[in-house]
Each structure stands twice: as structure tokens, then as C-alpha cells.
């Protein structure tokens, strides 16, 4: 008979820079869990049979016991802890407004007579000379704010105004506003 090593629980961690927090989800039943702590950017999950170290997606302070802050239900332990600010990347907007992005607002303003065309058929999509406002696409971090949108979404409860619900459920620019495109060419 060979001894088997206990299996580590499945987990997911995510750094949410706009919320300055680290989100953690561990698949674990409450009866197995004895203690949760954070040390050196690792979540230490103490069960009756083992201590599992889970690397966190962002830097956090050390905490001796965070079990009381965790939500434990349906076989999952979920937790959000404050992230430590990173001085080098203190503004997430620097990531979303750099010239490295394919079509930054700065790039588009340099081509006021440009035309966006379909990459497959070269059919014109948008004439920049007719665009009054330029808005960048939501950053890759847009989903971080979803929990706030969902908490205050106008369709919660007995509220049934379809016009307001449609406004919040669709990404539609005004007729003179540009949000996204695939390719820019000069006329």
C-alpha cells in the first residue's frame, strides 16, 4: 500500500489594479479549512492534512488570519485583500494611453482626414473627418468595475425601464463618435 499525497485545491487569483486589490478564489469545503493567512505574497491555506501555498497575482501586506474576511460557500472560499501600491506603475492609465497601443487617441488625432477600412475587403468604415469625439475602448481592466455596475444596474429589483436598461447593456457610440476600428489609411 502506498501513501498518497493530498491533492492541492484548485484556485484563481487576480490583481485588480483599478480597485487596488487582489481577488482570490479557492475550491475548498469549509469543513476542511482551518486557517487562511498571507505571507510574502502567498496565500497559506491550512487544512486538517496540509498547508498549501498559493501565489498571489499582486503584492499584498502580510496577514496572520484572513479567514474571518473570507466568504465561504458552495465549496469555494473567496476573498479580496488590498494590494500594495506599485510606485513604478501607479497609474493604470499609463498602460491604456501609451503609443504602443494600435490606435491610441493620440495616433488618431494625427490623422484627422484618415479613413478606417475593413481589413478584409477595404470597404470604408469610418471617415475621421466626420468624427467629432474620439474615445478609447475600455481598457482590458474594465471588468474590474463590473461588480459595481451589477450592484447598481437599473434592472435590479422592480425597476423595469427598458430605455435605461438598454443604455447600460449596450456599447453604442453617438453618430459622430468613434470607439473602435481595425485599420487606418490616408485618403
From TrEMBL:
Q: Which organism is it from?
A: Ogataea haglerorum
Gene Ontology MF: a single term: cyclin binding
Q: Which GO terms describe its cellular component?
A: cytosol; nucleus; ubiquitin ligase complex
According to UniProt, the name of this protein is Uncharacterized protein
Q: Name one GO biological process term.
A: protein polyubiquitination
Q: Which InterPro entries does this chain map to?
A: UBQ-conj_enz_E2-bd_prot
Look up the domain of life of the source.
Answer: Eukaryota
Amino acid at each position: 500500500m502506498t501513501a498518497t499525497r493530498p491533492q492541492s485545491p484548485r484556485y484563481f487569483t487576480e490583481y485588480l489594479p483599478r480597485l487596488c486589490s487582489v481577488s482570490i478564489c479557492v475550491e475548498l469545503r469549509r469543513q476542511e479549512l482551518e486557517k487562511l493567512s498571507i505571507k510574502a505574497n502567498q496565500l497559506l491555506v491550512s487544512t486538517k492534512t496540509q498547508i498549501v501555498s498559493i501565489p498571489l497575482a499582486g503584492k499584498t501586506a502580510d496577514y496572520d488570519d484572513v479567514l474571518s474576511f473570507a466568504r465561504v460557500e458552495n465549496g469555494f472560499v473567496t476573498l479580496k485583500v488590498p494590494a500594495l501600491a506599485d510606485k513604478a506603475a501607479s497609474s493604470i492609465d499609463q498602460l491604456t494611453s501609451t503609443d504602443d497601443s494600435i490606435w491610441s487617441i493620440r495616433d488618431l488625432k494625427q490623422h484627422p482626414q484618415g479613413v478606417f477600412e475593413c481589413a478584409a475587403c477595404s470597404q470604408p468604415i469610418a471617415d475621421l473627418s466626420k468624427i467629432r469625439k474620439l474615445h478609447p475602448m475600455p481598457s482590458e481592466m474594465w471588468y474590474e468595475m463590473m461588480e459595481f455596475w451589477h450592484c447598481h444596474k437599473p434592472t435590479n429589483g422592480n425597476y423595469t425601464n427598458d430605455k435605461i436598461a438598454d443604455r447600460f447593456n449596450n456599447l453604442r457610440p453617438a453618430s459622430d463618435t468613434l470607439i473602435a476600428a481595425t485599420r487606418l489609411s490616408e485618403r
